[in-house]
């Protein structure tokens, strides 16, 4: 009987319309950034969590619209005379709304599954708990919205709640995060542990990281308690019950915060050792990518081997294999980030190419000027130094000249490289090729040794001719 009543409530209320609006909004948000998660389960999970920045305000507003239904139809006094407890009367509507929100959230995630499952090389266990946190988050928002709509049954309640929800889950965390950085965008203090009470993750984590299951469980427990508070507020029939209704959320928050790690999501995330394992193509000089990026291997083998061949022909100390870096690329690294692992001289260590919208490699896009294949040419003169995630470089002019020297092609304008930098790089290149071949190799080999030793200024000076080898 209860199921029948709930079905009637869902069909005859605005629940289906609200859920469809949220579903369209979530699909629209994720569809604009499929390249951010295609082929990777962890990024898919955090994309679903990022969509909560729209879904939670929408659930609050939708709940407020449902909560004012009795007042809108002028049946408050009629229902107040019924002997049936208020919570029994409201439960079918609240549970129906919760189920609809859950189904809508899962439907929003399904297209992403189709982009990840066929090509993902690795399934991290922590991805499911990470994305599942969105379910209690939406239920809590929906029930809090219903309670607010019942308490303040005005037409402006829904839009006001939507704005408040967006500020609390989207704007306020960004303000708190920005306060952890100095004017040079260096992290100088950790973010409070309470940041993890917010289920929305705008920045997510690096592809080599995973959110511990324990953190997701603590977030889920907190959100379930908030949902209980929302339902109690909705069903409260007296001031005493109303006062007690806030206790589950408050007590859960007080219990959970001391157990959460500090420094927000960047501090909670852990390196996933399995994701960083190497997957190699050995039908020639070895070319390896990390397991989480195994789908990229067929696309990077040919250009990586071409670069290895060029270096073997021209450098006295060439690398003999190409390996994708395992450096974390998350800009929001913790204050106490561990030191980088130095790249060995035998490896040409490269950053992965960008993903396109289907989860394949986009070799035309690059982290720097000229696309990924051009970045690969200058990768031999880079090194991971200092804190994890910090790559040291020899400068745009020196890198352009080094790439030109490998390919025997003068520098050309590319990407953000302006004409002045191209002209300077071309001048360095012309000076290099004017030297005897043995001298060129000696100088560029010495520059590579200096770069691998993190003496980037010396490496750049050797290439540009400002320092004798």
UniProtKB/TrEMBL annotation:
Keywords: Membrane, Transmembrane, Transmembrane helix. The chain crosses the membrane at residues 46-66, 87-110, 122-144, 156-176, 213-234, 241-260. This is Uncharacterized protein. It comes from Natronosporangium hydrolyticum.
